[in-house]
Amino acid sequence: MTGVGGGSLMTPLLVLAFGFHPSTAVGTDLLYAAATKTVGTGVHGAGRSIDWKVVRRLATGSIPATVITLLVLAHVGANLNSTGHVISLTLGCALLATAVAILFRTQILRFFARNTAPRPDRQVAVLTVLLGIGLGVLVSLSSVGAGALGMTVLLVLYPQLPTNRLVGSDIAHAVPLTLIAGAGHWLLGSIDFSLLGALLLGSVPGIIVGSLIANRVPDHVLRPILAGTLAIVGGKLVF
Length: 239
Fold this sequence. Notes:
Elements: H1 6-16, H2 22-46, H3 52-76, H4 81-103, H5 105-115, H6 121-142, H7 148-157, H8 163-187, H9 193-214, H10 219-238
Helix pairs in contact: 1-2, 1-4, 1-10, 2-6, 2-8, 2-9, 3-6, 3-8, 4-10, 6-7, 7-8
């Protein structure tokens, strides 16, 4: 219905509504996202709406950051209660930040457009790699952040690129990011494959129904509802 929010809502609902351990919810959602975003990448690739330079820059930061984060989780112990608390807290903060990015994206972009001079390409490249690092850590811990947060920053860094190319680039980058992070959680033993199968089975009719509804409900109605839901769920996880 909105293009964002599915991944943001998936993990907290699995934790809060269905009682899954945070690490299991995160790991399973990551593999689910890798499968669904692979299809999205194929669509955008066929339409030539992917900027592979942006994807490479993001992956240069995110892939090493993901591996390091997974190694830290493996060292600490993914099933420890303390680790579950860290994941829940990270997830809650990520949801609150995502809610702000969704609700105030237009105002954020206008602010940077007015107050920021055009950056040299080298500076943009460095900032994109740093964004990738942040997304690698955030996604590995919470499975949230690559969508709304990543897209908002990309729109600030690359105002000259068409939005559809940035969307395609963001989705393409999410495939190796979620796949590696999900594989790492698999090795840590925090994947529920029966849950993964059920999520994939439900996503197809959900996409069809959501697409039909989206054509009838205005975006300015959907986004505040989504942002409000994410804020409430994120607040519950944090506090």
